[in-house]
Amino acid sequence: MNSKTDAAHRSGCPINLTVEVVGDKWSLIIVRDMMFGNRRHFRDLLTHSQEKIASNILADRLRRLVTEGIISKTDDPSHKQKAIYSLTEKGIELVPVFAMIGAWGSKWLPVSEELSIRARLLEEGGPPLWEEFMDDLRVAHLGKRPRPGAAGPGVRERLQAAYEEVLARNGPAAC
Amino acid sequence: MNSKTDAAHRSGCPINLTVEVVGDKWSLIIVRDMMFGNRRHFRDLLTHSQEKIASNILADRLRRLVTEGIISKTDDPSHKQKAIYSLTEKGIELVPVFAMIGAWGSKWLPVSEELSIRARLLEEGGPPLWEEFMDDLRVAHLGKRPRPGAAGPGVRERLQAAYEEVLARNGPAAC
DNA sequence: AAAAACCAGTTGCAACATGCCATCGGAATC
DNA sequence: GATTCCGATGGCATGTTGCAACTGGTTTTT
């Protein structure tokens, strides 16, 4: 029927389609940095990531993620050259996927303690914490107004604080 | 410190390590077919998949998944040439990841109804259903004995039945 | 005002991965 | 004894990734 759109896909299976969209070595890393690291600019993503992505790959993936509707790109009013990348609702709703991937990775792969603390907290917090985190992201990325009950540091800040605490405990040289 | 093992990894982040292991276009598809489609042999995986994987890629990915400890390979006693591939506990515990990926894909991507019914049921069932499914898989793949309370069709059979029901409703020609 | 640093990418090129098709030697089946 | 089935493997074209250098333009520093 809709052969024109279908032709691009191997199958209509949800797993397969998801893999087609984010099943490469970099897309999820970029979304992770935007989500948990609050990186919103090209340079931010390029230089402040643990994994040292190349600039052409980053440019290509950002373009693709925009095309897929997982992130959006707008001009930075304070700086004519800067572009701001934001998560869309579609991107924000990847939080539970990240939570599960992080939990599995922490359990089965040789993760470093500093970097797994976030995954552990996110797993322990469960769906309520994910919802709170997604609400925070909607405020930061979609311009939604904060929920009335929201006060104090957001989920991202709390995860970040926990990370830095582990770092400080294990010796400052680790960073 | 452990530079020899670290050298192979871009970082110790759980998300990154997971992406390094299953972040390609085929690995999760193969695990999905073993998990939800009960495919245990090379030919089974090669010919009965929607996505038409090439035999050399399948051979390569099976080898890698065995190396990663996500599946295991044993001889088929009934057929000297056949190999049986089984999920390990590490592989079985990807169920929640699949559930979340399936849920996200069903919500945001152009899935076909037949193929998304499984994802929907798995999402609606929540963690209790995932646990039941993982127990079924432990019986089928690890040789564990069934739980005392387990009777009737397993989770996979129920998902499969739901899939076939949708197929029958939408016209048999769809397959 | 000139120089330096910063911005989001782009280009060229080599290496690697993927995909398709044909084929293999051994084993089971007819 | 021929055919089919088995888990792969090899050749080859194409696509993707990774690195380093570079671009045109903007902002900051001197």
TrEMBL record, chains A, B:
Domain HTH hxlR-type per the UniProt entry, residue ranges: 13-113
GO molecular function: DNA binding
Matching InterPro entries: HTH_HxlR (IPR002577), WH-like_DNA-bd_sf (IPR036388), WH_DNA-bd_sf (IPR036390)
SUPFAM superfamilies: Winged helix' DNA-binding domain
Superkingdom, natural source: Bacteria
Keywords: DNA-binding, Transcription, Transcription regulation
Annotated Gene3D superfamilies: Winged helix-like DNA-binding domain superfamily/Winged helix DNA-binding domain (1.10.10.10)
Protein name: HxlR family transcriptional regulator
